[in-house]
Design goal:
Layout (H helix, E strand, L loop, with lengths): L6 E5 H12 L6 E5 L2 H6 L5 H14 L3 E3 L2 H11 L6 E3 L23 H6 L5 E4 L6 H11 L3 E5 L4 H8 L8 E5 L3 H9 L3 E4 L8 H11 L4 E4 L2 H7 L11 E3 L6 H8 L1
Parallel strand pairs: 1-2, 2-3, 3-4, 5-6, 5-8, 6-7, 8-9, 9-10
Helix pairs in contact: 1-3, 6-7
Length: about 260
């Protein structure tokens, strides 16, 4: 692959691998890696020490590494030896022509019939798959006494239903993987709020789902962590955050934040 192109842009662990390959084949091509630190250090069977060595070599060899969080970029420069001039930040955003309030455009005619029926009564949305802790999702809807649309782009629906299985009221949950994007937008637009349970995940879905929901015109509750710190960069120093923040799923903290919204 490297022989065919002058430059390559790749994401995640593939990006790190290509950057490393370029390092051991100098002068042949330039690899531009968009790196997810978690992908490199948490996947596969390589020892962590080996992963870290490969990651550092890739950072130093790439023409530029594009990070998706400021915290990740600073870590790579300060702790992993990435040259500052080669560490760029890709500001996170969403397509606000697509993600919009329901008042801004006609409703598509092909929305999933079951979803459309479900959304006639109040519910919250939980989106994203970073933490994989479906028990927390179940606890959240139980503490709020509300219904749920669980949005996922992967096959973690089985994990959710396993956690929720003892609850007799399965009709209060809509959980299905791989919904079309128009259905995802519809679910956002008609929800009472989004509850984001991703805290210190490096994955971009933590804050993109928050931005999608805000662009769709609904309130957002976010667990304090990397996501809230990143989004603070888009606000002025004295400007209130455009979402509610909580620290602990257990107890009444989420319900109190929901009431404030």
């Amino acid at each position: 692959i490297l022989d065919q192109y002058q430059a390559i842009v790749a994401y995640g662990s593939v990006g790190a691998a290509l950057a490393f390959a370029a390092a051991i084949r100098p002068g042949r091509s330039t690899a531009v890696a968009v790196v997810s630190f978690a992908n490199v250090l948490q996947t596969g069977r390589l020892p962590n020490r080996v992963r870290a060595i490969l990651y550092k070599l890739g950072l130093r060899a790439a023409a530029v590494t594009i990070f998706m969080t400021e915290a990740q970029r600073i870590q790579a420069v300060d702790r992993l030896g990435c040259p500052p001039a080669k560490a760029d930040l890709l500001p996170v955003g969403v397509d606000t022509k697509f993600f919009r309030t329901k008042a801004c455009g006609p409703e598509p005619s092909d929305i999933d019939r079951d979803l459309k029926t479900f959304c006639r009564n109040p519910y919250i949305v939980v989106a994203g798959d970073q933490q994989r802790n479906e028990r927390e999702v179940v606890h959240t809807i139980e503490s709020l006494g509300t219904r749920l649309v669980r949005l996922t782009r992967n096959t973690y629906t089985e994990a959710f239903w396993k956690s929720y299985g003892s609850n007799p009221d399965r009709d209060s949950v809509f959980c299905r993987a791989h919904l079309p994007w128009t259905d995802v937008r519809f679910a956002y637009q008609h929800a009472s709020a989004l509850v984001s349970l991703s805290d210190n995940s490096w994955q971009p879905a933590g804050w993109t789902t928050v931005l999608e929901a805000m662009a769709s015109g609904i309130p957002v509750l976010v667990r304090r962590g990397l996501v809230t710190e990143e989004l603070k960069r888009y606000c002025g120093p004295n400007e209130p955050l455009p979402f509610a923040v909580f620290d602990n799923v257990r107890g009444n903290e989420v319900a109190e934040a929901f009431d404030r919204l």
